[in-house]
User: What shape does this take?
Amino acid sequence: MMDGFAISGFFSALLASLVVSLVSWMASWYVGPTGQIEIITARR
Assistant: This one.
């Protein structure tokens, strides 16, 4: 898919996969199950 892209080792690949997983989890939490961005406000 990307010409010239290479990962130099196992631990680099592991770290990259953890970062991608964390960012994906945070994005899906922010977007919510409906596929729309949800804004949560606290009422006092």
Notes: The chain has a mean pLDDT of 83. The longest helix spans residues 10-31. Helices lie at 10-31.
